[in-house]
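Tip: read the tokens left to right.
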């Protein structure tokens, strides 16, 4: 039995799971963005700042690669979402893209001799990427639950119903909950990564202090987002493929999919336990537990909004234009062919894990940064 024997709905669910998993991996790897916002907080001189930037500078390309994988999987498996969101809400996506472009430029040119912008400007770019970029990404993802202003014509061409082209999501205060939750989660992840990757006690002590400061703020926004999600009405698809409002839809989804609910609870618990152990007992390896917890939690949230006859990209101006995994996917042949290609994913992940292990096997030290032949970002 191969992928060609599977029903279209099964293939659609398989690909939504892959997209959700890639989304979870991307949120975890955004510890790079969180770390960028801490370079001034955790350093007292240029050498310490360079230690921090070198630590995350070796990983930023993995974040870019995961973002491309996430977007590419959405484009190939659910092209109608890609054309609707990226083609309609282009101002918010262009703003996010700009935030990621300046990150790449900064790592390349920050310490280049005679760069005309200067080192401080590039460090400001890193902070913009780590704060504004992550916040806008959280706001954009939050529209999966709050909805967007668009409708589709008879040819499935998207017509955006707001001249702000996606930036109108900033007018909904509930979207801020996920945006700020992501910002502070990545700060915590970044500090946990520094604890594990840098062998220098003053930076480790400041990293623990930053976790103590950021964790309560993260919990306020995350609990607020979770409460909003579980109490709000959601967008369901009935047996006639008609999109209707359902009271407590996302809470019902968790209750009707106990495995997804279990993933969500276990994932959140892993993040909280990892932070507790790092702060109270001084363990330096907690980024692994927190990372797995982050991936599992985000995957569960995205499965909640995509599975169980749910419209994952609801339209606020024309309810029947809302997107589901059933009406926005590629054809059976496309999903089948891509599914065979997806069998290579475990090998790619194994290669990334090995490369990661090799890079982190030797911790960053002050002596390495000050060496005459050191490669500094």
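Filled-in amino acids:
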């Amino acid at each position: 039995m191969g992928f060609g024997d599977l029903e279209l709905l099964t293939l659609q669910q398989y690909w939504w799971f892959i997209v959700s998993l890639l989304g979870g991996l991307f949120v975890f790897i955004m510890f790079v963005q969180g770390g960028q916002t801490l370079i001034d907080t955790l350093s007292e001189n240029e050498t310490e700042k360079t230690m921090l930037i070198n630590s995350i500078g070796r990983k930023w390309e993995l974040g870019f690669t995961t973002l491309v994988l996430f977007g590419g999987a959405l484009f190939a498996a659910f092209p109608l979402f890609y054309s609707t969101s990226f083609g309609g809400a282009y101002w918010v996506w262009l703003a996010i893209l700009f935030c990621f472009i300046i990150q790449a430029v900064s790592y390349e040119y920050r310490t280049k001799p005679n760069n005309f912008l200067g080192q401080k400007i590039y460090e400001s770019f890193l902070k913009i990427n780590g704060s504004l970029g992550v916040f806008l990404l959280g706001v954009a993802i939050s529209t999966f639950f709050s909805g967007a202003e668009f409708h589709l014509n008879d040819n499935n061409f998207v017509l955006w119903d707001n001249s702000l082209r996606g930036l109108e999501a900033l007018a909904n205060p509930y979207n801020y909950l996920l945006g700020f939750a992501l910002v502070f989660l990545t700060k915590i992840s970044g500090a946990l990564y520094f604890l594990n990757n840098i062998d220098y006690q003053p930076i480790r002590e400041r990293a623990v202090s930053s976790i103590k400061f950021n964790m309560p703020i993260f919990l306020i926004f995350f609990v607020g987002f979770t409460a909003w999600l579980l109490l709000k009405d959601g967008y369901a698809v009935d047996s006639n493929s008609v999109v209707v409002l359902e009271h407590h839809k996302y809470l019902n989804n968790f209750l009707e999919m106990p495995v997804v609910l279990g993933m969500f609870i276990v994932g959140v618990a892993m993040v909280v336990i990892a932070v507790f152990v790092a702060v109270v007992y001084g363990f330096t390896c907690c980024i692994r537990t927190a990372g797995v917890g982050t991936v599992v939690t985000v995957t569960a949230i995205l499965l909640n909004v995509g599975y169980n006859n749910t419209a994952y990209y609801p339209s606020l101006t024309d309810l029947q234009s809302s997107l589901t995994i059933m009406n926005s996917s590629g054809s059976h042949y496309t999903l089948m062919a891509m599914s065979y290609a997806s069998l290579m994913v475990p090998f790619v992940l194994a290669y990334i894990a090995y490369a990661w292990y090799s890079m982190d096997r030797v911790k960053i030290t002050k002596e390495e940064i000050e060496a005459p032949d050191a490669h500094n970002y």
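The longest strand covers residues 234-237. The chain is about 70% helix and 5% strand.
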